[in-house]
Specification:
alpha/beta; seven-stranded mixed sheet; 9 helices; globular
Length: 304
């Protein structure tokens, strides 16, 4: 992923001139800025003049915040790479004071963190192997050895990083080393049962997704499904959100709910809840990897 504002830019990996000439470009442009006349025209004219064809276009005009958010997928022109597109689009971005990102077809590399519950990891592996996850699983990290066999059976490296109060800082440093070593774009907390430090949350801002049962904050602490049963809940849910230093308060990407009734005991509620967790997390990961999620303050715009 290449994220650009009007003051910074990054350079993609170099390619040969011959490869650039024969490659048919497929890209995604996302942007956010204050509402103003002419923005969409400027974008579409920019693409038309360079021979691109718009394959998908979605936008959201937020009347309350007076902002515009846009995602456009386009293809067709040859000889274009990310840096060239960024350089040529930058004058438009500066004119409208945009924050924008340009992405090519390179899949996001995903690191999955897991503890003892393996249902979300199993679901992510299944979708990845079936080609429907949107990203490329690269590594599994866990504070337990429980799911080493699952990861290695899928051909994924498994790294065990034990965590205690005394070793937490070292464990988090090791995690960041792995993020760099494996060129990770997204960290997924697939029922990883450790609270990340504020420093780590800031380091992973906008590129770490967590899943939790939607009983929070109503049923905090241990045995949430037993608490839910005691209260006679009628809906079981799960929430996928970006990780922030405010525990379980990050921008929400997706939520899933399943209706239940008095006949559902704690064990059945837990099973249903795991289904909701796996589904909400998989959607959030796919939408993020397809560059469909734009963070706007404490919330998100999701172009499904």
């Amino acid at each position: 992923m290449t994220v650009v504002d009007t003051a910074t830019k990054s350079s993609p990996a170099p390619q040969t001139e011959a490869a650039a000439e024969t490659k048919t470009g497929k890209f995604v442009l996302t942007l956010s800025c204050a509402q103003r006349a002419g923005i969409v025209q400027a974008v579409t004219t920019f693409l038309f003049e360079r021979g691109f064809n718009i394959e998908e276009h979605q936008q959201f005009d937020d009347g309350l915040r007076q902002t515009l958010h846009l995602r456009t997928a386009f293809s067709g022109a040859t000889g274009y790479e990310l840096q060239k597109l960024e350089d040529e689009f930058r004058p438009i971005a500066e004119r409208f004071d945009m924050k924008f990102s340009v992405h090519d077809e390179t899949k996001q590399r995903v690191l999955v963190m897991v503890s003892k519950f393996g249902h979300c990891l199993n679901d992510l592996i299944f979708r990845w192997r079936g080609g429907s996850l949107g990203g490329e699983l690269a590594l599994v990290v866990s504070n337990h050895e429980t799911h080493r066999a699952m990861a290695e059976a899928a051909g994924l490296p498994f790294v065990h990083i034990p965590v205690t109060p005394e070793t937490k800082a070292d464990a988090e440093r090791r995690l960041l080393e792995l993020v760099d070593q494996y060129n990770i774009d997204l960290v997924v907390l697939a029922r990883y049962m450790q609270v990340l430090s504020d420093d780590l949350c800031r380091s992973l801002e906008g590129r770490a997704i967590n899943i939790h049962h939607s009983f929070l904050p109503g049923f905090k602490g241990a045995r949430p499904y037993h608490q839910a049963y005691d209260r006679g809940v009628k809906l079981v849910g799960a929430t996928a959100h970006y990780v922030t230093a405010d525990l379980d308060e990050g921008p929400i990407i997706e939520q899933e709910v399943i209706r239940v009734d008095h006949s559902f005991g704690p064990g059945t509620l837990s099973t249903v809840g795991q289904d909701a967790e796996a589904l909400a997390l998989a959607r959030a990961v796919r939408w993020h990897c397809e560059h469909r999620v734009l963070i706007d303050q404490a919330s998100t715009i999701v172009f499904r």
